[in-house]
Structures are given as C-alpha cells and as structure tokens.
Amino acid sequence: MKNSSRIAAGVAGAVAGYIATFVLFSLLDFGNRADPITSGLLALFVYCPIGAIAGVVFASWLVTRSGKDASNGNGNVTRNSLKSLGVVVLLCVTGIGIYIALAYATATPWLNRNGATPLLVFEVRFPAGVAVPTSAQSITIELQTDLNTMPGEVTPAAFYRDGDQPVIAGEVELAFRTSHRQLAVTIQGQPSRIYPIDLSARAPHTPEFGTWRRLGDGSEIRYRAKWFGKT
Q1: 188 phi and psi, to 5 degrees?
Q2: For the chain, first and last CA: distance in Å?
Q3: Residue-wise pLDDT tens for the chain (231 aa)?
C-alpha cells in the first residue's frame, strides 16, 4: 500500500475514533450530570481526542498488518500513526483558521463592541437669512452609511447665532465601523441638505470640532467624534 493511502487510512481512523468515542460517551452517559457543560467539553477536547489517537493507531496497525512491510510492524505502525496525526492536526488548524477568518469577515462591524456607542457631535451654520426653527420637531437629522441609517437629535438649547448666521447643534450615534458616512439635515419646508462626514472608519475621539466644511448652498458643518469616558 502506498504511503499516502496509509496516511489516509490513519486519518479516517482518527475521525472514526473521535466519533465513536463521542457516541459511546453520550450513550453511556459518562460525566457529571450536575454539570453537563463541563462534561461535554471534557468529552470533546479530552476523551474524544484520545479516541482519535486510538483510531489512528488501530488503523495504522491494520494497514501495516495487511501490507508487505508487516515484518517491521511496530516501527511502521508508529511512523504511519505519527504522520496521520500530523495530517489531522494540520487539518484541524486549517479548519479553525478558516472559521476565524469567516467569523471575522461576517461579524457585525460595531464601532465600539464592548462599550457605549460613540457619538457624532455636529454644528450646522446656515447663510444669513435662512429661517431656522427653534423647535426640534421641525428639524430631522439622519446619519446615512453603507450599513445603516441612524436618526439623530438636535439640541435647541445649544443653538446660537454667529453674527447674522444661525447655527444649530446636535448629535447622532456612530454605531458601525465604516468610512462611508453622510449627515442629512432636513428643516421643514426646505430642501434636505446632505453633508459628507469625513471621518475614518474607526472615528477616533476628538475633543474639539474640526474646521467648517461648506456645502454648495452656502451652509457649513463642523463635527467631531465623541467617545464616552474621554475628554
């Protein structure tokens, strides 16, 4: 029998030994019934691997016994078993690596997975003569990204005038990690204004507003990312 066939037989023996041990463990109800989770982990990561090793050795012994090199039985069994186990370990490592890569690629790209959601704090300055309501109900804020849309809020108490130009202020949650963001500001009775938000995907905290950025209609926006717990 060719060497590759012997290794394949050993791998098959490992799989059969792992499954057989798991089935036996389940049927005979081994382990601590009061702690089934720990018992299941012991079965998967301790007893079943032992069964896999036994399956490799047994399969290698059968292959060696039926082959032309049976005269050097023990040496060939050991050598074939080690090669088969090496292949099994390589396959397991490869499988785990693929799983981690897929999990990372398909995971929800939360900006701050284990903490409070960061905020986009903004101010919009309008040209002189533009009517800006003092009521929050007349202004709609929406952060638009390639992953979601998020309603925002204005803070009427923070509204002010910069000379003869009215300025509104507000904030909206930055839920996801993406560099494709824009802020839609709609005042009742006026066309919606769309402001590009030039933040990196990870939107690091900044204590101060950036520079004013002008839109085609003469209005301007400035903003910063605010992370809770940072000043």
Answers
A1: -55, 130
A2: 71
A3: 566 777 888 888 888 888 888 888 777 766 666 677 777 788 888 888 888 888 888 888 887 776 655 555 566 778 878 888 888 888 888 888 888 888 777 778 899 988 999 999 999 999 999 999 988 899 999 999 999 999 999 999 999 999 999 999 999 999 999 999 999 999 999 999 999 999 999 999 999 999 999 999 999 999 999 999 887
Q: Do residues 183 and 122 make contact, with C-beta atoms less than 8 angstroms apart?
A: yes
The reported pTM is 0.63
11 sits in which H/E element: helix 3-27
Q: How far is 122 from 199, CA to CA, in rounded Å? A: 13
3-state secondary structure (DSSP) of residue 35: coil
Q: Looking at beta carbons, which pairs linking 90-98 to residues 24 or more positions away fall under 8 Å? A: 91/11
Could you give the CA distance from residue 59 to residue 55 in angstroms, rounded to a whole number?
Answer: 6
Secondary structure of 168-217 as H, E, C letters: EEEEEECCECCCCEEEEEEECCCCCEEEEECCCCCCCCCCCCCCCEECCC
* Residue 156: partners with Cβ closer than 8 Å, 6 or more residues away: 134, 135, 136
CA 114 to chain centre: 12
- Residues with Cβ within 8 Å of residue 22, at least 6 apart in sequence: 43, 44, 48, 51
Residue 174 tokens read as 């930055």
Report the C-alpha gap between 60 and 82 in whole angstroms.
10
> Which residues, in sequence order, are CB contacts of 72 under 8 Å at separation 6+?
none
